[in-house]
Each structure stands twice: as C-alpha cells, then as structure tokens.
C-alpha cells in the first residue's frame, strides 16, 4: 500500500518523464532511445500495478501510453537509419525527432489526468503541436503537405474547442448549449470524427511509423475521452441528453465512412488510418450511449490502441523490407519477415474483430449495451452491421500481403525498386513484436477487468 500511495503521489509528475527521456535521447541518439524504452517499460508496469489495485482512468490510459512509447523509442533507432522510403536521417533531424517524441508522449500522458477541462484543453493542444512537427519532420514534400493540412484543421478545432470550454463555464443556459456544440466540433475535429476527419489519413500515412502508432493508438482515443468528459458536464448542467445523442451520431457517421473507404485503399498505412476512423466511431458511440456500452468503449481504447499501434509499427518494418507500402507490391510476408508477419497477422485479426481477441469483446460490449438500453436497439444493430462490413473490407484487402508472389523490391510488372534495408529483422523489432503480440492476443482476457472506471 505504501508503494501504491507513492505512485498515486507521483503519477501526475510522471507526465514529465517522457519529455526528459526524449531530451536525453536527443543528446545521445545511440544509447539514449534504448534506455528510454526500458524506463518507459518499467513505468508502464508501475502504472498497470496501480490500475489493478485501485482502478483510475489516469493509470489505465497511462499504462497504454507508456507501453506504446516504450516500443516507439525502442524501434526508432532502426527506423531512422532508413526505411526504404528515404535515406538515413541527418543527425540534427534525428535529435529533433527524439526531443519531439518525448514531448508528444508527455502530452499524451497528460490527457488521462483528472484535471479541469481547461487544463485538458492545454494537453490536447500540446499533443497537436508536437505531433504536427513530427508529421512534418521526415524528408520529402508529402510529410510537409500532410502536416500543413493537419495544422490547419487542428488550429480550427483547437480554437472552437477553447470557445466551447469558455462557454461551458457560463451560467446562461443558451451559452452552455452553444459551448457544448463547440466542444463536439472542436474536439471531434482533433479526434478525427467525420466529417472533420480529412487531415487524418494523410497525417497518419506520412508520419514516421512509431509516430503513426501513437497517433492512432493513443492520441485519438484520449481526445475522445476528454470530449466525453466535457459532454457529461454539459449534459449535467443542461439536464438534457442531446449532447450524448450528437456524439452517437458522429460516431455512427465515422464508423460508416471509415468502413466504406477501407476497401478502396491500396496503401497499408492509409488503410490503417481509415480503420482508425472506423474504430473512433465505435468508441464515440459507446461513450455516447454510456452504461455497459460506455464500459465497452473504454475497453476499446485499450484493445484498439494495442492492435492499431502494433499494425503501424509493423508497417515500418514492411516498408524497410519492401521499399513500399503499396499493397499490390507486397507479398510472401511470412517468408521475408516472419516476425513482422506473425505480429501483423494477429493485429489485423484483432482489428477485424475476430474472437477471442480483445476488440471482439469491446465491440460486443458496445453492441450489447445498446441492445439492453430501451430506444438504442437501432444504434446497436447499425454498429453490428457496420462492424461486419469492416471485417469484410479488411478481409478483401489485407490477405494479399501473404499470398501474392512478390519479392522485396519487385513490382507487379517485374521491375525492381531500390533495395533498401534488406537486412533481417533486428533484435528491437523481434522484442517489440513479441511483446505487442502477447499483449494484443491476451487483451481480450486480461484487460477487461481493469475497466471498473468510475466516471
């Protein structure tokens, strides 16, 4: 109990730890990232222990963030040495990457803290500032254009959300109502909810793979939970339910659009980005419905975060081996990248909602919660139908990674792409793959009982 009390006291200060580790990694780019990875892994264990003893959202979300950050720091040295899409990064750009990565992880950890809404707005803006810089950092024109689109939408969302936070403190009922709408629009933009999602596919596709993993695995869902907190406060002050209904509607729209566009994607990272829009829709619906569906949504934050981050991490390994992320130019994955192949198979099966993996149970709780609530049956059935369509969309696109007769660097016309990064899978890749595969595979059995969150 003394150790738990000490962790409770230190938990808010742990937000600063990733920023410090990022700065140290920038100073020593050879050993610093591996040391940071080990420290963050130990921090995630401490956070998980606190979650088991006395459940708190800050510990639960912090556990997810620290796990994903530990892997991000661990695989970044190999990623920055060259991924097939670019040459190894210059030293100055590498240092900037680690410093920004530490700041990004710190801002993500802040999203889970039980702070006032104004402080959480600052945390959301911090995630935007650091992640925009990370998206723009890779060499080339594509990342800069994606970051520009991201920052335009993010500034719009941030200003609208700030307007909502200010109005929510008003004593006038009409101003509170307008503030609630502003929160839904502003934070909905930041979380990539349709129709304000246009920045997300480009940003997630162009960002470095470790950053894409954190964007999809932790940032989007963390912002949605902040939005849910604001919606709950507004609904309590107005004594109405329409803010929750709007959140459910935005979730259903995001789920439908994400599913519809998955099957059309030919780039692995863009496909995963649209999958993130789909799953943010599931979380938004669950949070809007509340009750058992809300519990499922909070579980979905964890199960989706692990599976989606793992898939994005593996996309970087695939790009390093094949020199491309175009699905038609990737094949025989199990032959050339056996560890990555196994990890990507588990993560994509989880994202498809295949039982008994974790996303099946979290999605099932969202649907079941809707079915058990009078008046929400149509919503629950819609979610179930759309998730089935999402399963079919992934089943249509992703199996080509294994059964196509493609060698690394070979296109569909027999041409050879530059043979970059054709060495075997590194120790860091194998360790991260093994760890995340175990976590993703066991999430459906281990994680659910952590989610007795009182909120």
Structure description:
- The protein is mainly α and 455 residues long.
- The chain has one domain.
- Helices cover 76% and strands 0% of the residues.
- The protein contains 19 helices and no strands.
- The protein is globular and about 60 Å long.
- It starts with a helix and ends in a 9-residue tail after the last helix.
- 59% of the residues are buried.
Describe this protein with a few key phrases.
mainly alpha, about 450 residues, globular, about 0% strand, 19 helices
What is the secondary structure topology, with strand pairs?
Elements: H1 2-10, H2 16-27, H3 32-53, H4 57-80, H5 91-111, H6 117-136, H7 141-168, H8 173-190, H9 199-206, H10 209-238, H11 242-262, H12 268-289, H13 291-322, H14 333-336, H15 338-351, H16 358-372, H17 377-397, H18 400-403, H19 427-446
Helix pairs in contact: 2-3, 2-5, 3-4, 4-5, 4-10, 4-13, 5-6, 5-10, 6-7, 6-10, 7-8, 7-9, 8-10, 8-11, 9-10, 9-12, 10-11, 10-12, 10-13, 11-12, 11-17, 12-13, 12-16, 13-15, 13-16, 13-19, 15-19, 16-17, 16-19
